[in-house]
Amino acid sequence: MAPRRLILVAALGLLAAHGTVAWGAPTRVAVLSELRVNELVEGDVVALAGDVVLGPQADVRGHAVAVFGEVRAEAGARVAGRMIGLSSLAGLAVEPTADEDGARLRIAVRLIIAGGWLLATTLIAVLWSARIRYGAAVLPLLGLRVAVLGALVALTLLAALIAAIGLGPAIGLPLAAALGFGFLAVKAVGLAVLGGGLGLAVLGRLASGRTLPLTAGVFVGVLAMLMARFLPVVGSAAWTVLSLAALGAGVFALTMAPQASPEGARG
């Protein structure tokens, strides 16, 4: 618990020292507030835990990115790069540029993301089969504690991102990118654990007790979870819960040594 408190204290201290909008050109950055741009910006526009709003006179020569927020562009706003909004653990939105088809781009982004998760989790099952198999075996024993741990990890990540951004563009943005990569890596491990448990359970029933390869179980389980992401109405909420559970399962799989029997996890 102490490291999380230290991160939160450091984040609040940096926010108090630097303010919510800390820098001008070439990059505009805001933390815990809406970032409105209505002028020329030579670099990128980035908001953490806030929205990016581009006014009619906005001319952004780089990208417009909102982490845990949305990017909204009014008529007349121009962005040379991409408009990317990560509204939650479940939602990633990439807006098309002027000469792109929006529907095709959204479909392409979804397919690329889904394919990336399938490839990453299958490779993880090959490289760390003992950890993934053990994690999938003890998953029923952990229950809701996995999702609770995932929520704590997500909050710690947000605090760490705020602290990183507070260090300034030169250091903060690369550090924030590294934290984001670490978040995705832990989530991929957790998805492999969840997918392995789900896939092996389903395939085990179909295979009449025969031993099945872990990679097949992970692939089938992760594919089923990705399909749930696109369910109407409940898809986004379901993927958010799965993402939190994956974070918790990923931390567990990376920090706990595989045991000969899942009963070792009861203690």
Overview of this structure, please?
The protein is of the alpha/beta class and 267 residues long. It has two domains: 2-87, no CATH class; 102-257, no CATH class. 57% of the residues lie in helices and 14% in strands. The protein contains seven helices and twelve strands. The chain has a six-stranded mixed beta sheet with strand order 1-2-5-8-11-12. A three-stranded parallel beta sheet has the order 3-6-9, with no helix packed on it. Strands 4-7-10 form a three-stranded parallel beta sheet, with no helix packed on it. The longest helix has 38 residues, at 169-206. The protein is elongated, with a radius of gyration of 21 Å. The two termini are 20 Å apart.
In short:
The chain has 267 residues and is α/β, with parallel strands linked by helices.
Question: What's the domain count?
Answer: 2
pLDDT averaged residue by residue: 76
Helix content: 55-70%
Strand arrangement in the largest pleated sheet: 1-2-5-8-11-12
Cα distance, first to last residue? 20 Å
Q: Quick one: how many beta strands?
A: 12
* Count of helical stretches: 7
Rg, Cα atoms, Å: 21 Å
Describe the biggest sheet? Answer: 6 strands, mixed
